[in-house]
């Protein structure tokens, strides 16, 4: 059996045990303004960022930014309205292929790279954050952490079936290194930051 | 590229026939190297991060068997089906078996260098199955019937006009289209249809976590996720070396990976797959294909620390001026040149020599693989195992004879004469590869030794 | 302090002036320097081609010539690095180890051991400095652009002491010239292209001279300059530091 052959070969060939580094602590700039850094990084990779005072401001902006988009779904109950229907679960992910705008509330926001950590329970279905033409993220600034180390400290041993960091709209530079936003996932990302 | 008989020098010479294109290729990759520098320099703790990543990977190599067992156990508990493949052929058979069992004829695949290494596409096509690569660059080289020339930038060797021609033939864009925006949009439409209709998706694996049994796949395009979340069957192929011990170690590797690769702070998507979604099958194929042998080569085992960022290619002055295909191996560039001889020493005997040993590769490597030192060591192994060509061997023996004896060296005569006789690049004729495009140094009136004897020793 | 001067074979044969300048410069700085006449080569041409196992006699010869000195100094980063990394001997490993620790490339010897602060040299020209890879990445003569670490440059530190010398900036500070020992003939096409590109960087920035701590790289670039009928010359850094 290949499994046992591979494991036996490794036991034979791997070097003497070397210890893991004991700490993963790195120096941090304690004066860093996390919200500013996050916003700058997000805009730098093509996201649109709004700083808003409260949830009430968000709906109208979405209405203005996506005037002709037909299918909008919100996985965030606070943001459901006549214009923004709530996400309704369908076991077949293909049924979401015509979603134009999907709204989510991630769990962690990383300042150093503007990555947003979103677990499966906040996606509606796994495919939704990818299949939608445009993605909207609602980010409470209390979710901000400085870097990826802090993010994983916060994630800890949380259980999930699927989870992902998303940073900006999907993109590619495969053709002569020209950056094009909107590869296979969303064409745009809009972030609302609130406290 | 199986069965290729041409060597790196021969393929590079062909590549260099179009100097303008070489300049373009070099500048494009140098630009990426510069983006990498800028990004790295924005992280004051960069070198500490590299050191930490290197230490984590050293630990992984030293305990890989136990980590793999732990990973398997956790993955099984998470509901993932785990397969083990000793070599490329077994990997391909396993994938084929999964598809057959589910009655699937067509599969969508996101980027996986391992499946390139295993030549999975060719195998499945021979079995009558249809595979579509969904990464834009991979799709482009697939349409061109070429292997990728770079592990991160598969079609970096292609100009947009050539891609336009391919898309004209295969995807129906008007002739002469070369705007990357339009070409990308065309691929988006074409592949969206693919994602929606394929029941099986294969992805690579960037990191597999021994502690939790989850695996992480990084893409910018979202193609791995589009494939996996819409398919009934998700197959993830990984080399045994993709293991990292704990989830929190991802913090170190995800900070290094894309900054090293392209200068981006992180990929758009870093997806953590832990359990199949309800009703979905999730398979992991764990592949050896020579890696356990490499593990046994003390001088070369730490090449298995590689996280496939491609930084060594972008910085390599030889890669930039010879192109990925000149390495005639799935993994090109400096890292390819130290991995390939392990798979077939005869076939890849030329690769460790395709370097000036400048050392830039080792400096950019995020896990601190001593790439250029391994290139030097592979040269020794290849010569000892008898894979050096024989004219080189005779030349070297002559040279050694002379340089080992001051008497022979001196009696070889006046300045320059010994060199003109024995150094392979020291003849002024068109058969001399030095003289073809470079002038010879002029032989001076006297050597330093002669000058010293006259001017210092006597006084 | 007794210093043994190691002049690499191709410098001896083709570029005696670099050797002479090194010798004179060291003498000028008050160093007791001797050139052991039984020396030939460091063995690198064989070793880099994969024939390290043939360098046994060459290594022993090197040890015979140089073991007795307090320091060994050589105007070549590449040959110095080769000795530092690869000189071994079954018969005299202790001596080999001693040599590996006391061999210095000229620039590092001047900066780190002699701590030269004032050279009294004059060279009123625009000069491009080529960072040879083995000297830079192997001996750490200059900080490497790949690393996130404070900048320093030992050759630059010395060249800044030369009156009238204007050091030009390059687009690619530390790109390899493509010499690479036997690489230059085995991989002729890429080697030449690398050399042409390196030379071009110096020419576009107005260099009148290209200098560096390794004559082999300079020989490569000279071959290209001459073929292109350029008036730009190469000079070993010792020749500039010794110029009056």
TrEMBL record, chain A:
SUPFAM superfamilies found in the cross-reference section: NagB/RpiA/CoA transferase-like (SSF100950)
Entry-linked InterPro entries: FTHF_cligase-like_sf, LUD_dom, NagB/RpiA_transferase-like
Domain (LUD) ranges: 97-191
Pfam annotation, one family: LUD_dom
Coiled-coil portions: none
Name the record gives this protein: L-lactate dehydrogenase complex protein LldG
From TrEMBL, chain B:
MF GO annotations: 4 iron, 4 sulfur cluster binding; metal ion binding
Sequence ranges assigned to domain 4Fe-4S ferredoxin-type in this UniProt record: 296-326
One BP annotation, GO: lactate metabolic process
Lineage, opening ranks: Bacteria, Pseudomonadati, Bacteroidota, Sphingobacteriia, Sphingobacteriales
Top-rank taxon: Bacteria
UniProt keyword annotations, A-Z: 4Fe-4S, Electron transport, Iron, Iron-sulfur, Metal-binding, Repeat, Transport
Family matches, as InterPro entries: 4Fe4S_Fe-S-bd (IPR017896), 4Fe4S_Fe_S_CS (IPR017900), FTHF_cligase-like_sf (IPR024185), Helical_ferredxn (IPR009051), LUD_dom (IPR003741), LutB/LldF (IPR004452), LutB_C (IPR024569), NagB/RpiA_transferase-like (IPR037171)
Name under which the protein is recorded: L-lactate dehydrogenase complex protein LldF
TrEMBL record, chain C:
UniProt domain Cysteine-rich: residue ranges: 3-84, 127-221
GO cellular component, one term: cytosol
GO MF term set: oxidoreductase activity
Higher taxonomy: Bacteria, Pseudomonadati, Bacteroidota, Sphingobacteriia, Sphingobacteriales
A Pfam cross-reference name: CCG
Origin species: Pedobacter hartonius
Name the record gives this protein: L-lactate dehydrogenase complex protein LldE
